[in-house]
Amino acid sequence: MSFPIHRPRRLRRSPALREMVRETTLAPSDFIYPLFVVEGRDIRRPIGSMPGVFNLSLEHAVAEAKQAKALGVPAVLLFGIPDHKDAQGSQAYAREGIVQRAVREIKNAIPDMLVIVDVCLCEYTDHGHCGVIEGGHVANDATLPLLAQMAVTCAQAGADVIAPSDMMDGRVAAIRSALDEVKLTEVPILSYAAKYASGFYGPFREAAQSTPQFGDRRTHQMDPGNVREALKEVDLDLEEGADMIMVKPALSYLDVIHRVRERVDVPVVAYNVSAEYSMVKAAAQNGWVDGDRLMLEILTSIKRAGSDLIITYHSLEAAKLLG
């Protein structure tokens, strides 16, 4: 049977009907809010390529986290930007490093706010790469102990979740082993398992001051053309002890999110990355699109593809709209 018996428009004729039968819905509890924390006092420095996003000193990071919590956003993702950088990224794993202090400040002020720490060396090295450099290349195995040490110091500071983003082989196992060795067996790992070498990271590198001083990251981040490889990375990270899996970026990788969701039974997280955010902002500022509508449509598409949680710079404004 077909028309006139079947009329799909019947269920679209009013906002109440459309809302009642909607298959995918967004809520503030779906979001994780990234914060860029810097040294100093009373710093709220705008990031030119990311309107509405700032480098924040500790007290402003705490205030931003409080606002997120009040809007129903359950978690923040912290990126630390130290004043001093060196070849080994030593401030990444310093007990009094900027990100460790940020964890303590936020947890002291808002104990029930979940604090996730991005574990990578790129913001902390003077060369901007994700690991130790040997012979002009990122040295995978020499980097693992430093990532593990960063994970431990962040967890000891109070981080609820450790999120390694470096894409070194074996880093989940190294971090899991290091956490377990110091009796932090209950701290989960959110692995950036399928992280692609993407052009969508440009504004982030301004925000995190992490642009590589030579070369690029294609030797460790994934080729954008590959999806079977993403599934292999996911499988390996789960075998090594990951508790949650991330796909990054999100918008151009909805198919990858869907494939990962179908493959695994753990929570799947997608990162709505900086250029995805900035494109919406730029188009809205030029009057080309309805920014709020486009934002919510993009976030809905990411969830519809299979993501349980979405890391997004839109967290606060989306939460306000969603009520």
UniProtKB/TrEMBL annotation:
Its EC number is 4.2.1.24. Homooctamer. This is Delta-aminolevulinic acid dehydratase. Belongs to the ALAD family. The lineage of its organism: Bacteria, Pseudomonadati, Myxococcota, Myxococcia, Myxococcales. NCBIfam families: PRK09283.1. It catalyses: 2 5-aminolevulinate = porphobilinogen + 2 H2O + H(+). It comes from Archangium minus. Keywords: Heme biosynthesis, Lyase, Porphyrin biosynthesis. The keyword Cell cycle does not apply. Pfam families: ALAD. Signal peptide: none annotated. Pathway: Porphyrin-containing compound metabolism; protoporphyrin-IX biosynthesis; coproporphyrinogen-III from 5-aminolevulinate: step 1/4. GO terms for molecular function: porphobilinogen synthase activity. It comes from the Bacteria.
